[in-house]
Amino acid sequence: MVPFDASFADNYALIKNLLQNGMNVARINCAHDDEATWSRMIQHLKRACRYTGLSCKIYMDLAGPKIRTRLLNKGKDKGKVKVKEGEIVWLADDDKGFKDDAIVISPNEPGIINMLKKGERVYIDDGMIKGFIETVGKNRAAMRIVRISSAKQQIKEGKGINFPDSAIAISSLTEFDKACLPFVCEHADMVGYSFVRYPSDLLGLQALLKKITSKPPHIIIKIETTEAVINLPQLLLCGMHQKAFGVMIARGDLAVEIGFERMGEIQEEILWICEAAHVPVVWATQVLETLNKSGMATVQKLQMQHMLPWPNAS
After folding, report:
1. What pLDDT is attached to residue 152?
2. According to DSSP H, which parts of the chain are helical?
């Protein structure tokens, strides 16, 4: 599986080269670019498939809710703000009532602030910055930074925020995702479902796809939250009502949610459970980073299986 970016839309030679060197799934992330760009990527891929006689499936990720930093006060103009351990950073939907030197960040999804509770953890920028909610007020919460793991001690615009202890009641399927579904149904063999937490999330997407087409793309649920791990058996049972269904372990986001020290253990458990259920798994995010940088593979393996129909599936 090879992730495509915007440059692929104007680089037929690169796509053909990847195809000839083993790519059999092209991954397009709907969180980036637009339908015109995705169309050019797909046209180049299909042209390369015709030329080489090789086949390649198309996998499209739905963007899901964007819980990312938006600087509202100090550092807003530069798109970044310096922070230090022990400092208070405010989480709020707007900058009203704050002093000019206050660091105020919006999680970019309305309503989240009022779902937070004192003592809950907050991670910013793939876990590089860790904090705890110290106080909660109306439409604002104070986060105390306790650890900064990056050499550059700063918070930048557009970085991910994780709330692993918080009950975040937002939909896994955004209005933007719904708008993308007709294009996805027309072009994709598989659709990646981000931020899945409960079986009801999966049932909602299944229902929408059936309204659009009689032959919807196969769903790959992305396991990237604590709730998805806890609810994995129920999610599998729900997904297995489909003729074909799969799971992606989104190791980057999941490691932030459950803790890096538990990632090895949890990913193995997910693989075992999915193997027992005969559900194919994509093990994703920097699995082959060492091979890419040094030419030497680590003991980690990228495990992928083809999407196969269930035995006796009707």
Report:
1. 87
2. 12-20, 35-52, 175-187, 199-212, 226-230, 232-239, 251-258, 263-276, 289-294
